[in-house]
Specification:
Number of helices: 13
Number of domains: 2
Bound molecules: pyridoxal-5'-phosphate
Largest sheet: 7 strands, mixed
Shape: globular
Strand order of the largest sheet: 4-10-9-8-7-5-6
Mean pLDDT: 97
CATH architecture of the largest domain: 3-Layer(aba) Sandwich
């Protein structure tokens, strides 16, 4: 296709409203035509290394025929059937069976959604349901963290701890309270004498439960590694303390592993790094590597048990048309087979170390304040001064654009550049990310 064709496509593209839309940020989009491994091809002939695996999800990389065939074969036989009362289908049975206990021991029940926002909404409703069944209907509040991202449905929007997603959609929904996350580079909560950041942030959780009242708090939700909030890797003492506090005050722990699930951080699921287990797990994205729309929650056996013993008037009246979508589940199953066969967690550990080590060499630029990561998810924080750590979103955008001109796609998140490439990436391609980013930084320096 020619440049002229691309201009026509961009004009026609105005017929659709894009996610998180502002005309300025969508003035000149890349029109992607094809993908292959970690590479994206645009209609005007550019070849771009996708350092974000789409939106942290195309873990198996682009152009996998096996996944296309799984979708084709399933669609031919049965694309969809209702999964509501009295019906089910084979791929959703097989996938739920495969997932039973896969992420965490004791989480043996899966409820399917079409994505991560629906998964978190389902988690909140399930927490409320659980406490009603336990005779504690006053427990409805969800404690979340500032800086967190949990999605875009109304409830997920107000569970999210980033104000810009809420400003134009208020008034705020009742029932969400936010506390600080343990950000090792810039913790903004109060640290008492002798406390670590992990201890201080966990204490905030305890204080929030006591302030709101134990009898009102249903759940605590956290991304094990915060993604959209800036790739924040927590200190090792944080999540074990969180788990203990949740147990002490009868608060369900919801792990939002929409980004971190399925190998991204070097374990199949990220709380494993700290030997912690949630009560509800939200997943999406990499379950299909983005080849089909699928997400879900997994429930502890304890929560599932409350559903089995419920009266008919207390049925779990929750479900989407596409819960357990046959084609999406078939793709998920095949994708899991690929992830296991190609040892994605191991790849994430090894290649993630290479990526992080490489990115750390860029710390010598005066505007690189911090470089961090876990497995194949990394963040580079851009500041105007290393001493004051003042955030520099304008410089971040400059570097983002300079990188894109050099054929590297990253994602600017305020003053952080995020990296989350396909787990199928090769060593040479990891080196290419570092080389292109370094050249972009040289260009703007
Ligand atoms: C941690 C987290 N939770 C939930 C979501 C929402 O998922 P979806 O966009 O599939 O609704 C996202 C999306 O980026 C996410 O990063």
């Amino acid at each position: 296709m020619t440049k002229q064709d691309t201009a026509t496509w961009i004009e026609k593209d105005k017929r659709q409203l894009h996610p998180v839309y502002h005309p300025k940020s969508h003035a000149n989009p890349l029109v992607i035509e094809r993908g292959e491994g970690v590479w994206l091809h645009t209609t005007d002939g550019q070849k771009i290394l996708d350092g974000m695996a789409g939106l942290w999800n195309v873990n198996a990389g682009y152009g996998r025929e096996e996944l296309a065939k799984a979708a084709y074969d399933q669609m031919k036989d049965l694309a969809f059937t209702s999964n509501f009362s009295g019906m089910t289908n084979l791929p959703s049975i097989q996938l739920a069976d495969k997932l039973a206990g896969f992420a965490y021991e004791g989480l043996n029940t899966t409820f399917f959604t079409s994505g991560g926002s629906e998964a978190n909404d389902s988690a909140f409703k399930t927490a409320r349901y659980y406490w009603k069944r336990k005779g504690k209907p006053g427990k409805y509040i969800v404690i979340a963290r500032k800086g967190s991202y949990h999605g875009i449905t109304l409830a997920a929007t107000f569970a999210t701890g980033l104000e810009k997603y809420q400003t134009m959609f208020g008034p705020a929904m009742d029932g969400f309270v936010h506390i600080h996350a343990p950000n090792p580079y810039r913790y903004e909560g109060k640290i008492n004498a002798g406390e670590t950041i992990g201890q201080a942030a966990a204490r905030e959780l305890e204080e929030a439960i006591l302030r709101e009242g134990q009898d009102t708090v249903a759940a605590f939700i956290a991304e094990p590694v915060m993604g959209v909030g800036g790739v924040i890797v927590p200190p090792a003492d944080y999540f074990p303390l969180v788990r203990a506090i949740c147990d002490k005050y009868e608060v369900l722990f919801i792990a939002d592993e929409v980004i971190t699930g399925f190998g991204r951080t070097g374990e199949w699921f990220a709380l494993k790094h700290w030997n912690v287990k949630p009560d509800i797990l939200a997943f999406a994205k990499a379950i299909t590597s983005g080849y089909a729309q699928l997400g879900g929650i997994q429930l502890s056996d304890e929560i599932r048990g409350t559903m089995e013993a419920a009266a008919e008037s207390e049925a779990y009246m929750h479900g989407y048309t596409y819960s357990g979508h046959a084609m999406a589940c078939a793709v998920g199953l095949k994708n899991l087979e690929i992830m296991e066969r190609e040892e994605f967690p191991k790849r994430a550990r090894e290649l993630g170390k290479r990526l992080l080590d490489g990115l750390k060499t860029l710390i010598e630029f005066p505007f690189v304040g911090d470089v961090r990561g876990l497995g194949l998810v990394c963040g580079v924080e851009i500041v105007s001064s290393k001493e004051t750590k003042a955030a520099d979103p304008a410089m971040t955008m400059k570097i983002f654009k300079a990188a894109q001109e050099r054929g590297l796609r990253t994602r600017p998140l305020g003053n952080i550049l995020a990296f989350s490439p396909p787990l199928s990436i090769t060593e040479d391609e990891v080196d290419e990310i570092i080389k292109r980013l370094g050249a972009a930084m040289d260009g703007v320096a």
